[in-house]
Amino acid sequence: MTTTTAESRWMGGECPFAAGWKKVMMWVFIIGDAVLFAGFLSSYGYARTMSADWPPASEVFNLGLIGLMTFVLISSSATMAAAVAMAKSDRARAARFVWMTVVGGLIFLGLQAYEWSHLIAEGGRPWANPWGASLFGAYFFMITGFHGTHVLIGVIVNIVTALRTASGVTPAENVEMAGLYWHFVDLVWVFIFTLFYLL
Amino acid sequence: MSTETAMNLGVYWRTWALLLVLTAVMFFLDTLAMPRGIFVTVMLTAMMIKATLIAMIFMHLSKESTDLVVTVVVCSLGFGALLYELIVVDAGRIYQMMQGVFVR
What we know:
The complex is a heterodimer.
Chain A: H1 2-9, H2 21-50, H3 57-60, H4 63-86, H5 91-121, H6 135-166, H7 172-198
Chain B: H1 3-31, H2 36-58, H3 66-98
Helix pairs in contact in B: 1-2
């Protein structure tokens, strides 16, 4: 019977997701983290809709800089995907691709620090800003700060992964786990970039 | 380098190029004077296409089992939608309170 098959499949002894525990747990973490960002962006969307004087993004942000940040992060995601593809067959090249990802992450953080320092110099604070609705600063610093922290953690994870991959300590599977996290950071930026900087 | 690895790398570089093209198109559309409704719809569509490309190709979801894909997609989008719904209801209540209308 179909019911018996369905029950036995989820009662142990099988692998319903057809993936190792590391990958399943990484996806569980990513789902949790995605919901966290969804909460931030949802409340931002509501606050923005209800504010009469939400400042236009093009007047506050340097969109050329944001474009460069997006280019760097998407490119670093591509190099990380290449690292995962190479991890099983060529460890040295995989490590080089992870190092390129690290460089991309550091450039992104540098550009974000530059953006923040300019906005802070112009009077932008989490509790007040010269451009319009007071909540603008709160959401901007919270959401981009939270994402930036994720990038920083990703850079640290990738440095460890690169070192351990080059020395042959880390199995190829772990490069894939680091890659999943890094792609998630890129994925979140796609949402922030569109919802905060363009709309 | 094996043939499979070379093929995977080719797919990744094409995906990277496609993501950059989509980003460039979004920037270009941002410079045009479009009706707000159409602009928002186009931007959200492009955003979802980019997110799907990253999840399916870079994160290998397209190669995972259907059970894992359904779990990830339903949980992320479902909980996200639920969260949004709860926030809107709560925020609407706060807004009404600020307007001097207390609703139980």
